[in-house]
Amino acid sequence: xxxxxxxxxxxxxxxxxxxxxxxxxxxxxxxxxxxxxxxxxxxxxxxxxxxxxxxxxxxxxxxxxxxxxxxxxxxxxxxxxxxxxxxxxxxxxxxxxxxxxxxxxxxxxxxxxxxxxxxxxxxxxxxxxxxxxxxxxxxxxxxxxxxxxxxxxxxxxxxxxxxxxxxxxxxxxxxxxxxxxxxxx
Length: 185
Ligand SMILES: NC(=O)c1ccc[n+]([C@@H]2O[C@H](COP(=O)([O-])OP(=O)(O)OC[C@H]3O[C@@H](n4cnc5c(N)ncnc54)[C@H](OP(=O)(O)O)[C@@H]3O)[C@@H](O)[C@H]2O)c1
What we know:
NADP; 5 helices; Rossmann fold; 5 strands; alpha/beta; single chain; five-stranded parallel β-sheet
């Protein structure tokens, strides 16, 4: 392994150790800006990273709404999470479907009045190397860019005004970074 790769690996491992250590330190009461009244919505939470984000937010005591484009799968995921002893709410949501988004926003307004946190996690990727295609690229841009943008536009009006807790978290990827890319075209 080259010196640079070796150093990068060491840096990554050190960072992972730091993160593991931070996770073991409980938050003190004055550090907790959230409570059970803090409502967090996670998109694409029926599996993968979204599922884990939902689990950890509920573990910290927030009210978590798990969303899934297939409601049956979402309900199953919610049941699996509830076995961990925390409560979750669940709703259907497809970030590419305007009607699904509108129905979700209406439900949020009626049931919760608004939300504090939006985690835009839903996304697709096709890391297929040379087997990739323009069609897959289009699906990535549709879901990961326009889908996320749809959600931000729809949810900002129902975000509760709060200096402490209102936030939108966009789960992204290093693959989406444009810096350092050459334009050979
Ligand atoms: N895993 C990685 O190494 C990695 C690295 C960098 C970034 N990310 C990003 O992290 C996020 C989660 O990744 P993951 O690995 O957990 O992916 P995953 O296991 O493929 O899960 C993606 C989730 O997004 C949902 N989804 C996709 N399109 C949707 C739509 N139109 N409406 C609603 N939900 C939709 C999927 O629903 P279905 O179950 O119905 O398909 C699934 O719940 C993605 O945004 C991804 O780009 C992941």
